Amino acid sequence: MIARVLITPEAEAVVEKLRAQHGPLLFHQSGGCCDGSQPMCFAIDDFKIGNIDVCLGEVAGCKFYMAADQFDYWKHTQLTLDITKGRGSSFSLEIPLGLRFMIRSRIFTDSELEELNQQESVF
User: Fold this and answer.
1) Which of 18, 45, 63, 102 is the most buried (most CB within 10 A)?
2) How many of the other CB atoms lie within 10 Å of CB of 69?
C-alpha cells in the first residue's frame, strides 16, 4: 500500500512523549499565513476538524489532516513528518520542547499515483 504520509523515528519519539502528556493527538498541515505551512500537533479535543479537511492517513497512531484546497496542491506528493530543533511559530504541542515538526516531501512516481488512485477508489 502506498501511504500519503509517513513519519521518521525521531518524530515518532516526540509524538509518543506528547501523547503521554496530552492524550490522543492529531496533526493538521497548516496553510495559514501566520503559521507558514507547517504540520501542527494538537490534542484531539483542542482542534475541530472541518468539513473541508481531508485525512491523508495516520502517523504514529495520529490522524493527519489538511484542508481540501491545500490538498489539491499536495495530492501528487508523499509527505514525511519529521522533527527539528528550533521554535516554530504556532500553537503546536511540541513548541515548548524547543522543537518543531516539519514536512519533507517527494513527488509520487506515475506508477505510485496509479496504485494510490486504485487504493482510494476502493474506499
Assistant:
1) 18
2) 10
